[in-house]
Amino acid sequence: MLVLPETSVSRRYLLALSGASVFTGTSGPAAADEYPARPIRLTLGYSAGGGTDHVTRIIAARLSHALSQPVVVVNQPGASGAIALERIARSRPDGYDLIVVSAADTILPALRAALPFDMARDLAPVAPAVTGALALVVNPALPVRSVTDLVALARSRPGALNYGSPGVGNSQHLAGELFNRLAGTRIVHVPFRGGAEAINATLAGDTEITFASVAPARPLIEEGRLRLLAVTTAARSAALPDTPTVAEAGVAGYSRATWFGVAGPAGTPTAILDRLNAAIVVAMHEEGTRRVLLAQGLEPFPGTQADFAAFVRSELTGNAAIVRDMGIAAD
């Protein structure tokens, strides 16, 4: 499971891990001082407008500045991110085709036994970048104003309420199933193609609830179009300090966070991976980046390639256990 920073803004690498690798990177003839010589594509496996898209655009802008080359965001939604991951895994390992990977991607292997790629074999780590909370929000027409109210209503109407997520097996899906398990409720999962669609469904009343990324949900909360009940992390969000956590609000033991990092295809030369990692670490430590992230319920999450590889290994193992224990059906 994701371990959040010890302070609200981390000023050191977050994980003191070494050696272990969940991805494969290899040395090559390309030199870091020759890279990048042209624009870089940064892919994400979800549609525009959702939380992953928002974070990807922040990373792209900061990385572009650090590398003095355009970093172009490419949305390639489908199959809960698997389509984009497969394309990157099959792409040329030259540092010009990268992908934002997230907590959701470390859930996929537990749900899909026949994935056409292997994260351990086919992707190379670059760096972790961002971590943050999810926001438990409801349509304002739903007669609840707290997590306690929601639990009571859901228990009184088992199977009648719905929550949306960006697809089967993502962080929001597991956030909802963890809520059901710990709160003793039966709120039905409704998968969509992306985070924006899941939020729009709750806005329209097609679903009553969603566990949304804070960035796209916050303006809708401020406009009164969504009602915020809690945040999902163990500690309160720096951007929403007056909002209780789900655990504080009555669901003991609840904690779920999201995170994002950058990877490329296996075989990318070590010199290029080093250059990219250094650029991301510098970008995430900039005060301007920190302010942008904190204002949206996110926090910098920099680290070395080894940090990221070992961290993702732990996420793959932990999420597989959650999927198994919750009885979430795999393909």
Descriptive report:
The protein has helices spanning 51-67, 82-90, 108-111, 119-122, 147-156, 171-183, 195-204, 214-222, 270-285, 287-294, 305-326; strands spanning 40-44, 71-75, 97-102, 123-138, 162-165, 188-191, 209-213, 227-231, 257-265, 298-300. By secondary structure, the protein is an alpha/beta fold. The chain folds into 2 domains: 32-130 and 259-326, Bordetella uptake gene, domain 1 (D-Maltodextrin-Binding Protein, domain 2, 3-Layer(aba) Sandwich); 133-231, Periplasmic binding protein-like II (D-Maltodextrin-Binding Protein, domain 2, 3-Layer(aba) Sandwich), CATH 3.40.190.10. Strands 1, 2, 3, 4, 5, 6, 7, 8, 9 and 10 form a 10-stranded mixed β-sheet that branches. The protein is globular and about 60 Å long.
- Mean pLDDT metric: 87
- The shape, in one word, is globular
Count of alpha/pi helices: 11
Oligomer: single chain
What is the topology?
Elements: E1 40-44, H1 51-67, E2 71-75, H2 82-90, E3 97-102, H3 108-111, H4 119-122, E4 123-138, H5 147-156, E5 162-165, H6 171-183, E6 188-191, H7 195-204, E7 209-213, H8 214-222, E8 227-231, E9 257-265, H9 270-285, H10 287-294, E10 298-300, H11 305-326
Parallel strand pairs: 1-2, 1-3, 5-6, 5-7
Antiparallel strand pairs: 3-9, 4-7, 4-8, 4-9, 4-10
A few lines on this structure:
With 331 residues, this protein is an alpha/beta fold.
Please give a handful of descriptors for the protein shown.
331 residues, alpha/beta, D-Maltodextrin-Binding Protein, domain 2, 11 helices
